[in-house]
Amino acid sequence: QVQLVESGGGLVQAGGSLRLSCAASGSIFSFNAMDWYRQAPGKQRELVAVITNGGSTNYADSVKGRFTISRDNAKNTVYLQMNSLKPEDTAVYYCNAYYYRTGVKYDYWGQGTQVTVSS
């Protein structure tokens, strides 16, 4: 059973930075991709950033140019560097990882870490 553990959330002023970490209990190289999602109160969970096994990345329009997703295969960890934070970035951030095997998708989630950006 794969476990994902997020850390690095907290309270920061607008314009500040945070770096989230997602540590996996096993090798992240086995995943097709790893993602960061976020969910603000009263809103649906939204995809923030993706990094594939090959290192390709993609971002939500709302965070492009401010957030950077990266991975360290040796540490089995994915990061989300968040700069120029805005109050609207306030949410619980979740790490997600998935892989496909014989056409079946296996999906794993972390417990979430709170990010609060004050104005």
How do you describe this structure in short?
By secondary structure, the protein is mainly beta.
Helix content: under 10%
In terms of per-residue confidence, which ranges show pLDDT below 50 for 5 or more consecutive residues?
A: none
Distance between the termini: 40 Å
- Shape label: globular
Q: Sheet bearing the most strands, described?
A: 7 strands, mixed
Continuous helix count: 0
Strand segment count: 11
**Beta content:** over 45%
> How much is the average pLDDT?
95
Structural class: mainly beta
Spell the H/E element sequence. EEEEEEEEEEE
Question: What is the rounded Rg?
Answer: 14 Å
Task: List the topology elements.
Blueprint: E1 4-7, E2 10-13, E3 18-24, E4 33-39, E5 46-52, E6 57-59, E7 67-72, E8 77-82, E9 91-101, E10 104-109, E11 113-118
Parallel strand pairs: 2-11
Antiparallel strand pairs: 1-3, 3-8, 4-5, 4-9, 5-6, 7-8, 9-10, 9-11
